[in-house]
Each structure stands twice: as C-alpha cells, then as structure tokens.
Specification:
Structural class: mainly alpha
Number of helices: 4
Distance between the termini: 29 Å
Number of strands: 0
Largest sheet: none
Order of helices and strands: HHHH
C-alpha cells in the first residue's frame, strides 16, 4: 500500500507540474494581446485560477510525503529538539483545525 501511495503521489506531482507550462503560455499570450493588440483573451483570469488549483492541489500529496513544505527556522534554530518537535506538532494541529 505504501509503494502505491508513493507512486500515486509522484504521478500527481508530475501531472500538476505539467500544467505550469500552459499557465505560462496563456499568461504571456494574454499580456501580449492586451498590450500590443488591445485584445485580451476572454476568460484568461479564470483559466489561470483553475490551472493554479490543479497545480497546487495535485502537488500537495507529494510535497507532504517528502516534507518539502516551506519553513523558516530563523526563530527556532537555537531551541532544543524536544521544543522543535512540540512546535511542529502544535503547528500541524493548528493547520488541521484551519
């Protein structure tokens, strides 16, 4: 079961990453059309929102599995490992509540 979840999260991560290129292309075409031809592509904003949702949501499982979330250790680098573990547990619990 663990290998299947690992493989599935990797495929979703790769699949989500593949949507970055269409997002870039549609944004460039829309900006160029708006600035050069004064004709933006209708619905580009909504399409970009949907693509961002796909990119972010499909990569969440992979990111969580490799513990690749963004963290800033500026404030906690000088505290004990036990305190770091407690803070990690506490912040995880807060995220679950939110």
């Amino acid at each position: 079961m663990g290998k299947m979840i690992k493989r599935l999260s990797e495929w979703f991560g790769i699949g989500g990453a593949l949507f970055i290129f269409p997002l870039i292309v549609i944004t460039i075409i829309d900006v160029a059309g708006r600035n050069l031809l004064n004709k933006p592509i209708p619905g580009t904003f909504e399409i970009s929102e949907y693509l961002l949702v796909i990119i972010i949501m499909s990569g969440l499982g992979f990111t969580q599995r490799i513990k690749g979330y963004a963290k800033v250790d500026f404030f906690i680098k000088n505290i004990s490992e036990k305190s770091k573990a407690f803070l990690a547990l506490f912040t995880t619990f807060l995220c679950i509540l939110i």
